Amino acid sequence: MISLVKNELVKIFHKKGLYILGIIVLGLLLLNIVISLNYEEKLLNGLDDLYYQVLEDGLDNYDMDDTEELSWYIRDKAEIDTYSFLKEYDYLSPEYYFIDNTGKEVIENLLNAQYMSKDEEEIKIAQDEYDKFVNKLNNFDWQEDLKEEKEELEKTKDVINNQLKDASEGEDTSNIEQELVNINYQLEGINYRLNDGIAPSYNANSTLVDTYVSSALQYDGMKKDEDLYSDRGELINKRKAEESYYTSKYKLDNKIYNEGYETTQAQVISMFSSVDIFILIALFIIIGGIVSEEFNKGTIKQLLVRPHSRTKVLTSKIVAGVIALIIFSLVYFIANLISFWIVNGEVGSLLQTVVVYDFNLSKVVEYSTFTYCLLNGLSILPIFAIIFMFVIFMGVITLNTTGAIVSGFGLYTASSIINGILPKKIVAFLPISCWDFRSYLFGGISSNQYASLGISVIISILTIFILSILAYGFFKRIDVKNQ
Amino acid sequence: MSLLEVKKINKFFGKKHVIKDVSFKIDEGEILGFIGPNGAGKTTTIKVILGLQSLNSGEVLINGYSISKDFEKAILKVGAIVESPDLYMYLSGRKNLEMIGAMYKGVSKERIDEIIKMVGLEKRIDDKVSKYSLGMRQRLGIAAALVHKPNLLILDEPTNGLDPEGIKELRDLLKRLAKTEKMGILISSHNLLELESFVTDVCLIKNGEVVVTSSIKDMRRGDRTVYIIRLDKTDGIQELLNKGDEVLDNKFIKIYRDEKDIPEFIELLVKKKYKIYEVRENIMTLEEAFLKKAGGNIID
To answer: Beta strands B152-156 and B184-189: pairing type?
Structure first.
């Protein structure tokens, strides 16, 4: 049996298609590295410069007497002027974020006053605002700004508290109560920023604070008792908000931060959390012709006149296919990991834990990157396993490589199409509706409300079992046709 | 125990009855020529024997094991080439042999080298098979069939693609294997002349049915031998002839008689005043023997 598997591996690793795929993957990774390291900034800046130059050249073409065209002129000029500030700063810097979120509006207001209303008083006010913005930028201190904002929010909070105190019995105070909740979460966010030095910016830590504030607000307004949800979509939204709220809070409380906005850990996790198209293509190349090619080229006769049963022959092909796919996936993963390392300049983030909200335990738990990736990988394994056995089965019954590959790819794409065409109840128990276990991870629920995790596992195992029985049954009975 | 026993096998393709009660056997040291025109059912029979196609009824026993019930034991000591030696073209000849050898216990590297030498492929064995000529592929196919030292060799039209020198070498090799290794050999062909000089037995198949099975010796001799007699005249001789005998022209007659009956016939001719110049035993070619046994133009 081992010798049969070895022979199959020799045949698989002589397939040109596999090497062509490998070269394409390496080429894409190299291209990504080269662009990221050398050209990304220059390229994007160059494109930005070009874009704004085109905008600037176009300004002369607007008819300033036409109100609509004038508004376009102001819009474009505001963009050009904002860009003249933005290009001085790094994308992840707090200054960039400040200009992008505050400066743009100030500049647009000034231009509106100058060109649209032309009112002296308005121009003066807008000019003062603009000067203030420029001054702030020149003496940039985001902590001072946040402290000011905090003071303002505290004052508003006092006012609301007084209003609530003064409210007469029976008066509807829900609006101001909601506003109070809102202010409290905003203040929490500011406190996290000030305490941990997280400036408002586009980097991951700042986004984490924003996520916390928005998910806290969203989750606060939601019903907590899941029995009250009749709509599956609403229940899933509630769960998403709940997960987002608890995990972001946990990270902030425990200071689990990431620098930058793209880490090697995040990229590795993303690799394991989705059906990678290159691994799927490798599966088709390895498995598509593993049976049919032997029949089409006549080499099956060399295999079937040896002292090994047909069951052993097919098993050796399946085992070799699995081994080859694992080897390809490992090489593919290592190549990707190296490219992430080169582009991001770090692999240390892989040592960080992954924070997950476990709905079964109703608490946040930490997993190592390895365990988390393993769990995610296992949760999509049924997809690969079912497609794998389906392609083997189709190869055996059609003895046609193209037919086997096309039907395998068809099965994969059908999984996303069929749910949209047919009523959910009809497709709920189809293998392609149950083969993705990702949503069940950590006590999660699937959008397929009819099939629980247990049912999905049973359907997937049954599917693989039935496909195997059929493939072996047909393979044992195939007559080697005369040429 | 015979090396191969084919017992009344039947095979249908849908409703078409392609193999009809075919039976024959091969013992140690025998080379059975499996003869028949194209489409007669030779390859299908061979595939059924090797388990490449299922049989509808009957039984195939190889070394005493049933091919359908005990496949692995039955096929263990069989070497075969079916239709053409289809090998992995993208691998070298050596890699092909190594892979085949790995499917058996005890096929050593030395055995592979020995078999490469035996088929004369030493110089090109490390080239990819795709670069081989048809004849070289045929030799490699023979090596692949022999690498595990089988005691039954089944070759389907193995001379295809071989040049006259190659055919002669194959003939000598098969004779040697049958004689020294006591190997039983089944060799199919539609060309009688190729097999005539070295097969020990023949089995003629036509339209899926065995027409005749016989040893070469018996086939040639038949039950009566042909004699050609040259006379001074053939007038009035018809009354002395048996059914099947022929007057060839005014000097020659052809008669079918047992050897022991010839003196008596000569005596009769002398008595009837015929002058006898020559009596010649006419040895039939294998083809003539077949024509006589089976009647009609049975070979392509």
So the answer is: parallel
